[in-house]
Every structure is written in C-alpha cells, then in structure tokens.
Design brief:
This is Periplasmic heavy metal sensor. The protein is an all-alpha fold. It has helices spanning about 10-15, 20-30, 35-45, 50-80, 85-100. α2 (about 20-30) packs antiparallel against α3 (about 35-45).
Length: about 110
C-alpha cells in the first residue's frame, strides 16, 4: 500500500476510483482554505459514492494516517521535553503555525 504523500505512486484506494473522483480528491487535499475536518468531510462524501473495496481501502488509509499522526505527536512530545525552555517555546510556535496551515507535524 502507498501511504506517503510523495513517492511517485498513488494511494491504493485512489487507484480504483474514476479519474474524475481522483481529481476531486486531489483538489480537496490541496485546497488551503479548508481545515483538516472540512477536508475529511468532503473526502468522506466522495468515498461514499465509491465501491465497497474503495471505501475499505480508504478506511485502512485513514487508520494508518491516524496511527502515524499519533506516533509523530509522541515523538514531538519526547523531543520537546528535552529542549531548553526557549527552544521549546520556539518549537511550539513553529508547530502552531504549521497546524494553522494544515501541515501535519503531528
């Protein structure tokens, strides 16, 4: 399965979709005006119109993404705890900026 954002391949659930739905998913993902919850809701609407196989693959992808997010949050917390107070404050500022821009550091 292709889990990453890059790597030159498509996610497994997207390979089984129509080209129109694939394009719609990409547009949603790259829409900087949407927060994570809005993107998820719109993707869910598209996925509900797809086959049970695509829905299952998307659910697996979402599960893996959630696990990865949790792992990254734990790593960030561990690293952050070892920083000086000034470095921790700077890291927290960077993290908050990235979260506003829908970039997942965590």
């Amino acid at each position: 399965a292709q889990w990453g954002m890059g790597g030159g391949g498509r996610r497994q659930f997207m390979q089984q979709m129509s080209p129109q739905t694939q394009d719609a998913m990409r547009q949603i993902f790259h829409d900087q005006s949407l927060d994570r919850a809005a993107k998820h809701a719109r993707m869910q609407q598209l996925i509900q119109k797809e086959s049970p196989q695509v829905q299952a693959a998307f659910a697996e992808f979402q599960s893996h993404r959630g696990e990865r997010r949790q792992q990254m949050q734990q790593k960030f917390a561990q690293l952050s705890s070892s920083l000086s107070p000034q470095a921790r404050a700077a890291a927290d500022r960077v993290r908050s900026i990235m979260m506003v821009r829908n970039v997942e550091l965590s």
